[in-house]
Records
---
Amino acid sequence: MSNKHCDIAIIGGGPAGLSAGLYAARGLVNTVIFEKQMTGGQIVTTEWVENYPAFPEGVAGVELGGLMTTQAEKFGAQIELFVTVTKLTKQDDGNFELQTDAGDTWTARAVVLASGSVPSKLGIPGEDYYTGRGVSWCATCDAGFFKEKIVAVIGGGDAALEEALFLAKFASKVYLVHRRDEFRASPIVVQRVKASEKIELVLSAVPVEIEGDGTRVTGLRIASTKDESEQVLNLDGVFEFVGTNPVNELVADLVDTSAERGHVSIEIDGSIAGIPGLFAAGDLTNSSLKQVISAAGSGATAAFSALKYLDELE
Ligand code: NAP
């Protein structure tokens, strides 16, 4: 319960926030990263990252997140772990005020928003009831519960296909249910999925209900997108990877979130038009590429611009 001050406050400790923290701290300004959970963001729930440069064999997501954290801290970024920023306002003196669920009030001369995104839900019957009883959004967390069992993965993007491959190491069978007959995932991942003997493609189909016995998931009812037919896949688990939604609640009243799906619109230097001192990076923003490398790059850009902004103030 106290008042604290920093030069650059970074909201979110994923690849964008940690890279912003690294660059800001190396600019020798007082830098604080606020992270409501563990640092590393969504990569800590990714088993293996094989498209981040300098790791030719790939790297475990949790290890990459840890390395980014260590590097930001090494240069002096302070991490406020398990702290949620609950309110962000711009004050008349140009500073920002941040209130946290720890009861502290911080002021900052500049802010980098890097709150990322969260997995979308399908919004179908049974989904809420069976969450944690067979319905999951995290294969690395829950795959171990499905050894020699049957699961379905929903979606046709990189997340769905990569996680289907991961689940195939545990499950006896993985249905990959996708609403079209073409995938938006990277061709190399599509190739691997098609080569997997354990993955059965169920294309042009959408989930309509998750069925269960009151305790656990027992089936997934799917409907064809080509005709009126429906069928039930008998299975033990459903993993949903149908996209992500930006975590924008904190700034919904402050900035333009009218871009597709509520992403924050940024300028090329990471700034937010009309709000001097406010920057954004990573999956929260309207950037076209949602990857670790682009999140890290945009975090660096936002911090560099924030440092320039502080210089110009002086
Ligand atoms: P995504 O690329 O947006 O894919 C979402 C998938 O879910 C799409 O195939 C979409 O179908 C399907 N879908 C959406 N709503 C649906 C609904 N209501 N019912 C059924 N299916 C639905 O999302 P993502 O895979 O989570 O990836 C998010 C971003 O992170 C992407 O930019 C992705 O490239 C990136 N990513 C990268 C990696 C990597 O490079 N290793 C790993 C994971 C994620 P349609 O195709 O028909 O729209």
---
Amino acid sequence: MKIFRGRNFITLEDYSKQEIDFILEVSGYLKMKYILGEETPLLKDKTLFMIFFEQSTRTRNSLEAGMTQLGGHAHDLTPNKMQLSHGESAKDTAVVLSRMGEGIACRNCFYGTGNKYLNELAKHASIPVISMQDDVYHPLQAIADLLTIREYFGQNLKGLKVAITWAYATSHAKPLSVPQSQILLFPRYGMDVVVAHPEEFPLQRDVVDRAKRYAEEGGGSLSFVGDMREAVKDADIIIPKNWGGFAYFDTWEDSEEQWEMMKNNLEKHKDWRCDTDMLKLAKRHVKIMHALPADRGNEVTDEVIDGERSIVYDEAENRLHTGKAILALTMGGK
Ligand code: CP
């Protein structure tokens, strides 16, 4: 196991299974301390700079509260508060912030550029760069999901069927990064992941290829179907989630024409909604997960997300505990 201090956290692909297990152990330790009301000043007087190009509820507040609970402080930054808005380079931003604090966290989900921006920050920063989500990955969400799954299903996840299904939403075209990080991670733990999506809403081919390789190595599996019902049949976990049709295009140009095509494609699939009929196809003990925010009534009905099968609030709470573990390990520790 490599030392954690100073390492970037942009994709869980950079972390071995042994290291991910350790992150989960630390998360459990911090969760226990939090519940017991015991202090954990592991990052006393340390500063995290959080740069959000997009809105956030869970990521922003889990990391800001997390830094407070660890004895440090987080700066809640957006481009309009920074010289980024006047074109300051990622290099200058990263070098300057590296001289003032101990960690840089960034969310940049612009398709085709977000992950590149984070890697550019990481190239020039001398402190860890932590992804708060980009266009390709959302590792903070995936690790919280894994902790939540373990809490409900135990340590041995071999053979657990997880249905990750695209779902209709009108709120916004969500990034691909949540399902992509999930398919890259879950099969490493022996889970059988089935992804369902309409043909116009694929995941990135390069990510899928790597995820299939990890599935083989980890003893899990990854398969794709074109029907939500088929995916949820006999599932232990259902994750109904919208994502944009960015990867449908050979090259994403962010043009009005492409957005219009995506909107037209979306309207063809209004019936992709997780409702109680879907739940009946799954195992009796099925759990409903969702990274949130959910487009209630579209992605998933109120009855399902508020029902007894839903564990979405436990999943959201675990963003705090796993986020703190990542901060404590990469910005502090030995
Ligand atoms: N799941 C998640 O990342 O939520 P936020 O967009 O609210 O941070």
